[in-house]
Amino acid sequence: MSDHVLVINAGSSSLKYSLVDGRSGEAAASGLVERIGESQSRHVHHGPDGDAESERAIADHEAALQAALDAFAEHGPALDGIDLTAVGHRVVHGGARFGAPTLIDDDVIAAVTDLVPLAPLHNPANLEGIEVARRLFPNLPQVAVFDTAFHQTLPEAAYTYAVPLAWRDDHGVRRYGFHGTSHAFVSQEAARLLDRAVADVNVIVLHLGNGCSAAAVRGGRSVETSMGLTPLEGLVMGTRSGDLDPAVPAYLARELGRTVDEVDRQLNKASGLKGLAGANDFREVLRLRADGDPGATLAFDVYCHRLRKYIGAYYAVLGTVDAVVFTAGVGEHSPDLRAAALTGLDRLGITLDETRNRAGATRISPDDSPVAVLVVPTNEEWQIAREALAVVGQGT
Ligand code: ADP
């Protein structure tokens, strides 16, 4: 039996795919179809012979997945020689129902559909990917791997918002948390790097990509995380504000004569680094800051301040911390950010070795520091593949 899983991440106008060996993590091929539904969709396929790129109209997700299958046939590896075990789908919101990856059937689809109000941008696209894959691979098990599932272990005191009972009971208002696949992968990797059992280590994971979130992981179980009902809460992100006084949307709606939906859109799309520096790409923020741009300087400072505050808070939640782990685009690639975020934390046992930090080492703290500071590349595709294998009974 093969260990290969086709991992699918369907967005509203994009479809990412990856053919992953769930045991070794090796990706035999991957690809991205962007601008689905537009006249010039773009498709890049990374196969064994390099990259194949094309631009043409790809009408919908079904055509996008078909284009991916055509690319496998044309540029390799040939799927019929691979004996796929499952299709693994990234699903953003699993609500309180899904605390683990799940074999998809009509019931699961109905439940994910019920959760659309909690993730109106993401879940419909994820469902589209599932429907299409079920049609094109009718004989393969399809597994949903939820971004929220890893955080279903949060204690009640951590996931409960202090709001009226009816909101909590009737409308599911609580912290769910996201990026769970990444937090799970990275915290397991951290234990492996420390040569300790997952159950024995406490880790603070900082996932800093376009979206950013922190998680406190005790013995492999998430006990606190910064994103909430939606991915808007918590750290400063590319275009999302993260934490703010919950009265701000109502205040602005009144002041500007806007609807709450319009304000919500601005908090999701025009805030964060973009709101502060005019650029949502962290590399651009670093460039502007190096040129002395005051907005970019402030953006960097706010971003780091928020991060440091969360590290302190999660230290208190965990009591003892074995590792602080940076991951995703910013976390993996910006030594400036890592150094600035950890400044002044020596009394907590968190110290950087600047040479290691600049050199791109995995362990960037001194060997004898009480808390290891690690840089661990996330690999959500591998995590999805191995969780899918586990669901179909092929896992380790
Ligand atoms: P996504 O959340 O879309 O998966 P990524 O994990 O790829 O995002 O992270 C994207 C972010 O990482 C962007 O803000 C980008 O500027 C930043 N980034 C990528 N490379 C670097 C780098 N060398 N230095 C600083 N930031 C970087």
Explain briefly what this protein structure is.
The protein has 15 helices and 13 strands. The longest helix has 25 residues, at 294-318.
Task: Please give a structural write-up.
The protein is 39% helix and 19% strand. It has 2 domains: 4-146, 2-Layer Sandwich (Nucleotidyltransferase, domain 5), CATH 3.30.420.40; 196-375, 2-Layer Sandwich (Nucleotidyltransferase, domain 5). The strands form 2 sheets. It has an 8-stranded mixed beta sheet with strand order 5-4-3-2-1-6-8-7, with helices on both faces. Strands 11-10-9-12-13 form a 5-stranded mixed beta sheet, sandwiched between helices. By secondary structure, it is of the alpha/beta class. It has helices at residues 61-75, 106-114, 123-136, 156-159, 165-171, 180-193, 248-256, 260-269, 272-277, 282-290, 294-318, 328-333, 335-341, 354-359, 380-391, and strands at residues 4-10, 15-21, 27-34, 41-47, 50-56, 86-91, 102-103, 142-146, 202-208, 212-218, 221-225, 323-327, 372-375. It contains 15 helices and 13 strands. The mean pLDDT is 97. Bound molecules: adenosine-5'-diphosphate. Adenosine-5'-diphosphate (ADP) is lined by residues 209-211, 238, 281-283, 286, 328-330, 333-334. The site of adenosine-5'-diphosphate has 13 residues, from α10 and α12.
Distance between the termini: 13 Å
- Share in β-strands: 15-25%
Q: Strands of the biggest beta sheet: in what spatial order?
A: 5-4-3-2-1-6-8-7
* Rg calc: 21 Å
